[in-house]
């Protein structure tokens, strides 16, 4: 159906799909995502080095296959996949192959070690890593009306919203299971008087669950990891998290291709059987990224090393900071292997 036939009103899923990935969409702009927001990948090379160490753990669990794949979902301009390949020890690097999964295609002069593709390769053996990918998988938004009914939120290209039809079918079932709009957490009763607050919102994550399941299914053997802004069923934000980013600043989400459109991820809903979940802080510390300052004695014995170690400590602190990147969720999904023991949450 053409936009003019609906007065330009669409659900947020369709509007975001076109604004982000359509012709002239945000993710097809020449400056790439790094021109508008900063992820862990852009914060420090320590992140890519930690992921390279994880790939080595997966390599060991797989029995050192002849080709070891690193699949970078939502690869942007290839910063992570290139950084990971650069950080591998020689014996692993000689068998490693990078795959950059990105709808926008490769930048000029792509790395010959990396294959660019629109979908993850089928049957890859290795590590599939989705850093801040799921938050950009478009989804619909629901809002409670004055009668207490969750309705689909419709939006125009200028960001103006109105309520549409009641949420129904699989979307309604997803809300009941994972984000019930009754003011209480999933699996618990709503307010005692039966009145649901007007304006409560939820982001219907069913499309993300399906996208993650497809990504995991593409692996032949190995480990799939999703890293993202996340929330749990017992602490969903009452008015949602949909927002925009432009030139490094958070802004009103407008589906016209001028800004990123993102929402936090219900990683607990995405998780498949056998998954493990932990914070980025815990994951990176398990992979050797700490925030401790180097000993002051190093400043006198090797001043250059001290300066480098001090810089690494500051970067590690940012990557693991409470209230910031350290609170990101990591979802680890094994395929035919065990999750590396050091990354299993306590208990």
What labels describe this entry?
five-stranded antiparallel sheet, SAM-dependent_MTases_sf, NDUFAF7, 347 residues, protein-arginine omega-N symmetric methyltransferase activity, disordered N terminus, seven-stranded mixed sheet, Rossmann fold, SAM-dependent methyltransferase, MidA family
Structural class: alpha/beta
Helix percent band: 25-40%
Unreliable spans:
1-5, 187-193
Structural Rg: 21 Å
Secondary-structure element series: EHHHEHHEEEEEEHEHEEEEHEHHHE
Name of the top-level CATH class of the largest domain: Alpha Beta
| Tally of discrete structural domains | 2
Report the CATH architecture of the largest domain. Answer: 3-Layer(aba) Sandwich
Q: Largest sheet, order of strands side by side?
A: 4-3-2-5-10-15-14
Distance between the termini: 51 Å
**Total of DSSP H or I helical runs spanning 4+ residues:** 11
Could you tell me the mean pLDDT? 87
**What best-fitting shape do the alpha-carbon axes yield?**
globular
Q: How many strands in all?
A: 15
| Main β-sheet description | 7 strands, mixed
In CATH, the topology of the largest domain is named Rossmann fold
Strand residues, percent: 15-25%
Structure description:
- There is one protein chain.
- The N and C termini lie far apart (51 Å).
- This protein is α/β, with parallel strands linked by helices.
- The protein has a seven-stranded mixed β-sheet. Strands 1, 6, 7, 8 and 9 form a five-stranded antiparallel β-sheet that branches.
- Strand 6 and strand 7 form a beta hairpin.
- It contains eleven helices and 15 strands.
- It folds into two domains: 84 residues, no CATH class; 210 residues, Rossmann fold (3-Layer(aba) Sandwich), CATH 3.40.50.
- InterPro entries: NDUFAF7, NDUFAF7_sf, SAM-dependent_MTases_sf.
- Keywords: Methyltransferase, Transferase.
- This is SAM-dependent methyltransferase, MidA family.
- GO terms for molecular function: protein-arginine omega-N symmetric methyltransferase activity.
- Pfam families: Methyltransf_28 (PF02636).
């Amino acid at each position: 159906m053409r936009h003019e036939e609906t007065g330009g009103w669409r659900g947020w899923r369709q509007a975001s799909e076109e604004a982000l990935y359509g012709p002239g969409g945000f993710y097809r702009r020449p400056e790439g995502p790094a021109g508008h927001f900063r992820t862990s990948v852009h914060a420090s090379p320590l992140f890519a080095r930690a992921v390279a160490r994880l790939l080595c753990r997966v390599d060991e669990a797989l029995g050192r296959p002849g080709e070891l794949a690193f699949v970078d979902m939502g690869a942007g301009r290839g910063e992570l996949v290139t950084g990971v390949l650069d950080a591998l020890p020689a014996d692993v690097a000689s068998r490693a192959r990078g795959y950059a999964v990105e709808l926008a295609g490769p930048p000029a002069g792509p790395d010959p070690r990396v294959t660019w593709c629109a979908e993850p390769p089928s049957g890859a053996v290795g590590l599939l890593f989705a850093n801040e990918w799921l938050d950009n998988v478009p989804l619909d938004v629901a809002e409670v009306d004055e009668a207490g009914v969750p309705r689909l939120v419709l939006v125009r290209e200028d960001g103006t919203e109105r309520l549409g039809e009641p949420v129904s079918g699989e979307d309604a079932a997803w809300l009941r299971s994972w984000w019930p709009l009754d003011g209480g957490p999933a699996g618990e009763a709503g307010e005692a008087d039966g009145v649901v607050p007007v304006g409560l919102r939820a982001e219907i994550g069913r499309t993300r669950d399906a996208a993650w399941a497809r990504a995991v299914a593409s692996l032949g053997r190995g480990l799939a990891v999703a890293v993202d802004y996340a929330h749990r069923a017992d602490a969903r934000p009452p008015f949602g998290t949909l927002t925009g980013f432009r030139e490094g600043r958070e802004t009103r989400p407008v589906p016209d291709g001028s800004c990123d459109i993102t929402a936090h991820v219900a990683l607990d809903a995405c998780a498949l059987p056998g998954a493990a979940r932990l914070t980025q802080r815990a994951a990176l510390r398990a992979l050797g990224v700490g925030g401790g300052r180097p000993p002051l004695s190093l400043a006198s014995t090797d001043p250059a090393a001290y300066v480098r170690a001090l810089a690494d400590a500051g970067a590690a602190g940012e990557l693991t900071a409470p209230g910031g990147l350290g609170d990101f969720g990591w979802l680890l999904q094994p395929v035919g292997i065990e999750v590396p023991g050091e990354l299993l949450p306590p208990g």
